[in-house]
Amino acid sequence: MTDSLRLPLRRKLVSLRLHSVQPVLRTRGSSPSRWLFDLEQLAERRKSDRKVSLQCIEAIHQALTQTATQVEENLASIASLATELGLALAREIVGDAIDRELLDPTSTVLRSLESVTLSSKDTRLSIFLSPTDFSAVVSKLQESPEFATLSEHAEFAVDAELGQGSVRIETGAGKLRYEPREVLDILCEEVRRESKT
């Protein structure tokens, strides 16, 4: 189908052939003012569509930014919960070992003897152990080859106030108390502090 359109011209044209005319813009019988009005509406619609598209893009950008921030916050929260869960599990394991009398303070006593011996040959140690640990620790120390040279610097005694696994050491310079639960609490605080950095 071919549409024809008459245009007033000041000069004569040799020929003019249009191969495609968009019928949406101008239909047969429509006036030039209507055609211009249709173009204006089309421009307004395109402008409105562009504005909506830009608003959608901005909304998507904001949503992605907020999502990234929220994911980071959620991961930090999950990391904190995992840390606390691990620390609670460690406290349960240590508590169970203490309750079942599985902690052996022999290595703590031996390290204390070695450090005192290294610092001064004249220093004497008074080592206090819980009633449940006393005989086992002393017998293990007597079997240790290192203890024979260190034993001359120590005397052992029982302290009924000490819990299983605990050691109290007294020297002329001061006192040291090793309590497994307190040591675990200190370690837990260090882990919490490090996990926040």
List the helices and strands and how they pair.
Elements (H helix, E strand, L loop, with lengths): L31 H68 L6 H14 L5 E5 L1 H13 L1 H6 L3 E5 L8 E5 L2 E5 L1 H17 L1
Parallel strand pairs: 1-2
Antiparallel strand pairs: 1-3, 3-4
Q: Which overall shape is indicated by the principal axes computed on the Cα atoms?
A: rod-shaped
Class from secondary-structure proportions: alpha+beta
Could you please say which CATH topology of the largest domain applies here? hypothetical protein PF0899 fold
Q: Which regions have little confidence, pLDDT < 50, spanning 5+ residues?
A: none
The major beta sheet can be summarized as: 4 strands, mixed
The share of residues in extended strands comes to 5-15%
Any idea how many domains? 2
Taking all Cα atoms into account, the compactness measure Rg is 44 Å
The end-to-end span amounts to 76 Å
Tell how many strands the DSSP assignment holds: 4
CATH class of the largest domain: Alpha Beta
Which architecture of the largest domain does the CATH hierarchy give at level 2?
2-Layer Sandwich
